[in-house]
TrEMBL record:
It is found in: Cytoplasm. The gene is csl4. This is Exosome complex component Csl4. Residues 1-24 have a biased composition (Basic and acidic residues). Residues 1-36 are annotated as: Disordered. The lineage of its organism: Archaea, Methanobacteriati, Methanobacteriota, Stenosarchaea group, Methanomicrobia. InterPro entries: Csl4 (IPR039771), Exosome_cplx_N_dom (IPR025721), Exosome_Csl4_arc (IPR030850), NA-bd_OB-fold (IPR012340), S1_domain (IPR003029). GO terms for biological process: RNA catabolic process; RNA processing. SUPFAM superfamilies: Nucleic acid-binding proteins, Ribosomal L27 protein-like.
């Protein structure tokens, strides 16, 4: 009589040791405090909610706050913890989203100020990146450097005129989506390629693009 081996193969050590983010699975209750760029979950488990962005299957915080998980909707969000918005100063490094691109300026909605306390910033006033402040070299078409929805890291150069610059190598677009199918763009040969539709796009990139490091 033939004997069938019913032993179940052991999972590889790589699978069992895979580290998952430290998340409190509680409905609408705050858990750990996170900073912009912190890894907080994966898209296989959660939908990306307010104060977050997704990249290559991972979910990152887009602002300083508390991680909130809604079990019913399977959505993970980051809720601000500051009650009084801080004042933006010249020289501050800020994180924001491109909300409009015009001929000579890109409009940025700032979500947080990078610094010793990773200050949260909430305001209806938007800042601008003038075409002359995008990078050191000449920029002919601003729409090739920024696109609607891009998450950018920039430096404040004028608080009265509310101007930003991305000329430094560490500044620029941190995450971006395909303008055709809205898939997350990935780095390939110093350009961005959409893994979904194959479209190649250009941006003024931060050297930290796609790393989750702010």
């Amino acid at each position: 009589m033939r004997t069938i081996d019913q032993d179940t193969p052991e999972k590889s050590k790589k699978d069992t040791d895979k580290k998952k983010p430290d998340i409190s699975h509680e409905d609408d209750e705050g858990s750990r405090t996170v900073l912009p760029g912190d890894h907080i979950g994966i898209t296989e488990e959660f939908a990306s909610g307010e104060g977050t962005y997704s990249l290559a299957g991972d979910i990152y915080a887009n602002r300083t706050g508390k991680v909130h998980v809604n079990k019913k909707d399977r959505k993970i969000s980051v809720v601000p913890i500051t009650s009084v918005p801080p004042v933006i100063n010249k020289g501050d490094i800020v994180i924001g989203e491109i909300v409009n691109v015009r001929d000579s300026v890109a409009i940025v909605s700032i979500s947080s100020i990078k610094g010793s306390s990773e200050r949260e910033f909430m305001s209806d006033d938007n800042f601008v990146i003038h075409i002359s402040d995008v990078k050191d070299s000449y920029v002919k078409d601003l729409s090739r450097e920024f696109s609607l929805g891009d998450v950018v890291k920039a430096k404040v150069i004028d608080t009265e005129k509310m101007r930003l610059t991305t000329s430094d190598d560490s500044l620029g677009v941190m995450t971006s989506r395909c303008s055709k199918c809205h898939g997350i763009l990935r780095m390939e040969d110093k350009n961005l390629k959409c893994p979904s539709c194959g479209r190649i796009e250009h941006r003024k990139l931060s050297k930290d693009y796609g790393t989750g490091v702010v």
